[in-house]
């Protein structure tokens, strides 16, 4: 191995990032629902905000400013709700008003990470949601943009360079797609029933549903595949010396699979939340300066007459947070208390060179939640009582959602439920 390869391996081995995505489709779900879940594991002090952007129209020729680069804007975008690191344009996870959910994971492959700034995997998550009206359509958006603009750029708010490739889980009311990338190359696997999870590793083997037109020829030209044996994407494109983070992800992936399989046939929103809160498996992460900074669970009924429900924490550690439901509505009240401050052109992310300083991106809910976490060290009993009350609030919300899905409560009465839950949570913290 060359010195350059050794240096790259050391750098990748130090990469402290991980996430987990889950989906359950009937008959894996208890009801006729598709259930999506994701934990976003990021630097411990990074703030994740939850932002709703309504659908919008743009004149022909408009340009869109993503985290680092501009790309042509489309004439019409879907309404989206996103859980996103406050410093970037893109999102770790989110949903649109067409019943599509997308989440991404960091991964490294035999293809080198391209230098320079391009689209972040998180940018591609948001772009897929803004432009795709189904899981497959979002996948097509992502792969087209990937092939045109590439992926790359600094992935954390820090001057020290750190970049990676991405895998994605894309879900709608009918099916799910696992999309795995290596540079501009990609491969996808369709999932139509049962349970599935992904972590920071390649999982698609020979069961390939769609792929980049040059995927196999590139692998053969590089000497990674002889062109005769069965083509197994994970075996061919996984690095010979995977970074430590990918090795550790195997344990989480296995643990997540086991948890899903334990509940196969009975997965609900509550079950998915319990999986995201599981600390023994490492899925709920809080170690080494990194933690689960945001979590999301979505319920997508197969019956298109019923609304989709998306739950977000907007605060770190789902075991010490509550999931608050969001429903797309024409009259939803903006929830500014989970939106971070904006710094315009003075933002250290936008100045060149980037990331030379940091600003306070904490939103109101984050500050209130952080204060309670800090007080737990001196008043654990009092803090536990607060969480017990909040968990009761979460249970009440889940009961109301269940009643709505069964037709007992009109869905339009719950359009401000996210606003009400955030407001109530802050009051309890105070």
Automatic annotation (TrEMBL):
<dbReference type="GO" id="GO:0016805">
    <property type="term" value="F:dipeptidase activity"/>
</dbReference>
<comment type="similarity">
    <text>Belongs to the peptidase C69 family. Secernin subfamily.</text>
</comment>
<protein>
    <recommendedName>
        <fullName>Secernin-2</fullName>
    </recommendedName>
</protein>
<dbReference type="GO" id="GO:0006508">
    <property type="term" value="P:proteolysis"/>
</dbReference>
<dbReference type="GO" id="GO:0070004">
    <property type="term" value="F:cysteine-type exopeptidase activity"/>
</dbReference>
<dbReference type="Pfam" id="PF03577">
    <property type="entry name" value="Peptidase_C69"/>
</dbReference>
<dbReference type="InterPro" id="IPR005322">
    <property type="entry name" value="Peptidase_C69"/>
</dbReference>
């Amino acid at each position: 191995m060359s010195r350059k390869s050794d240096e790259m391996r050391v750098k990748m081995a130090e990469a402290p990032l991980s996430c987990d995505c889950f989906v359950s489709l009937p008959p894996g779900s208890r009801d006729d629902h598709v259930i999506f879940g994701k934990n976003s594991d990021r630097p411990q002090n990074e703030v994740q905000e939850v932002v709703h952007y309504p659908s919008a129209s743009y004149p022909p020729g408009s340009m869109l400013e993503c985290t680092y680069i501009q790309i042509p804007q489309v004439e019409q975008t879907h309404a989206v709700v996103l859980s996103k690191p406050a410093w970037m344009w893109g999102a770790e996870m989110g949903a649109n008003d067409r019943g599509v959910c997308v989440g991404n994971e960091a991964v490294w492959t035999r293809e080198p990470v391209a230098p320079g700034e391009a689209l972040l995997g998180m940018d591609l998550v948001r772009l897929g949601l803004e432009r795709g009206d189904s899981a497959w359509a979002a996948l097509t958006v992502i792969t087209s943009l990937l092939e045109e603009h590439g992926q790359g750029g600094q992935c954390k708010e820090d001057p020290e360079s750190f970049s990676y490739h991405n895998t994605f889980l894309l879900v709608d009311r009918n099916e799910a797609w696992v999309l795995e990338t290596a540079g501009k190359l990609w491969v996808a696997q369709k999932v139509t029933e049962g349970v599935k999870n992904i972590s920071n590793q390649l999982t698609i083997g020979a069961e390939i549903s769609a792929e980049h037109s040059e995927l196999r020829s590139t692998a053969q030209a590089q000497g990674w595949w002889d062109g005769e044996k069965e083509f197994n994407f994970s075996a061919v494109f996984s690095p010979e010396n995977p970074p430590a983070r990918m090795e550790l992800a195997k344990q989480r992936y296995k643990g997540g699979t086991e948890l899903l399989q334990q509940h196969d046939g009975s997965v609900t929103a509550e079950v998915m939340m319990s999986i995201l809160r599981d600390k023994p498996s490492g899925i709920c992460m809080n170690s080494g300066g990194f933690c689960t900074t945001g979590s999301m669970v979505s319920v997508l009924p197969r019956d298109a007459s019923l609304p989709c429900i998306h739950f977000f924490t907007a605060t770190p550690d789902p075991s010490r947070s509550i999931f608050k439901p969001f429903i797309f509505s024409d009259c939803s009240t903006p929830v500014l208390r989970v939106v971070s401050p904006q710094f315009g052109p003075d933002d250290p992310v936008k100045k060149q060179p980037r990331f030379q300083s940091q600003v306070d991106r904490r939103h109101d809910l984050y500050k209130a939640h952080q204060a309670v976490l800090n007080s737990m060290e001196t008043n654990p009993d009092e803090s536990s009582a607060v969480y017990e009350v909040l968990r009761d609030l979460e249970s009440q919300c889940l009961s109301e959602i269940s009643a709505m899905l069964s037709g007992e409560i009109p869905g339009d009465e719950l359009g401000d439920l996210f606003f009400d839950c955030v407001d109530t949570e802050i009051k309890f913290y105070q």
